[in-house]
Amino acid sequence: MLKPLLIEVGVEELPAIALLKELSNIEKKWLFILEKYDLKTGFEFFYTPRRLTLWHREFPTKQEDKIEEIFGPPKEIIEKNKKALEGFAKKCNIDPNEVVFKLKGDKEFAYFKKEIKGKSAKELLADMIDEWLSLLNFGKTMRWGECEKEFIRPIRWILCMLEDEVIKFNSYCVTSSNITKPHRSIKEDIKIDFVGEYFCKLDKNGVILYQDERKNKILNEIKQIEKDKNVSVKVDEDLLNEIVAITEYPTSLLGSFDEKFLKLPPEVIITSMKEHQKYFPVYKEDKLTNAFVVVSNAFTNDFTNIIKGNEKVLRARLSDALFFYENDLKVI
Known about the structure:
Layout: E1 2-11, H1 16-36, E2 44-48, E3 51-60, E4 66-74, H2 75-80, H3 82-92, E5 100-104, E6 107-116, H4 121-135, E7 155-162, E8 165-166, E9 170-171, E10 174-175, E11 179-180, E12 190-191, H5 197-204, H6 211-229, E13 232-233, H7 237-246, E14 251-256, H8 266-277, E15 280-284, E16 287-296, H9 304-331
Antiparallel strand pairs: 1-3, 1-7, 2-3, 4-6, 5-6, 7-8, 9-10, 11-12, 13-15, 14-16, 15-16
């Protein structure tokens, strides 16, 4: 029987660079676990800074039963050596009188066939998830509270459901449940009664789970800014991926800074914006302007204070840069 399976590991905010470096291995390592436990099926993986999510539309509720064939010593050896017969019987956990022989090639060998009943997925998922998390390599790890296991950031919740059934277990000092968390700005937890609710409820509570959807939202809003202001925004792909990894509900916003800072070399301004603040530079007629695009992670309808706050921070950085730049010019 096949049922939908949902696994969500909730964490404190993951550092973007570490997450992106391990990203290509995360799915491979879960696939390895599926193969190891004979439960290989298709799945999707989603991430935000606060959650790692595995989604199986169809997941087997148990392993398939297997037939194991065991061949022992040749018949001619067993007839000469009683201990060989006893050793094979002990290995197969049967009485020596139960040993039979089967032709293999041109010889007969001691033979035993047993049926191995497949275990239920509910019995295995705890070990599978625990092992998967232990395989993930984000570089530095940490411990928190009384938990002896280590991870890149503290694990705060684990949601694990097979259709409408909660799979209960303890891992990384957390008890699994059917509870997930909304956007940081929303305090009330979200209860999931059926796995299909998960995606809709997250979306309504400030979490865009699909990373590609977050990326497209950022890009589409930047295009709208370009159209409305008749400017062009230089989007660095690496920076874009980093922003996607640190936001759950991204919104692209246009900010500005004093024109006096444009006397700085463009490289200095762009570095201050990109490296320190994660901003995209804005151009008009191929010239850098006194504007920037910041991507907010706030779940709100009023971004006034967010824009002002980012403008204030950038102004301080550019003021420092301008001070040192003008002093250097005096020396020259």
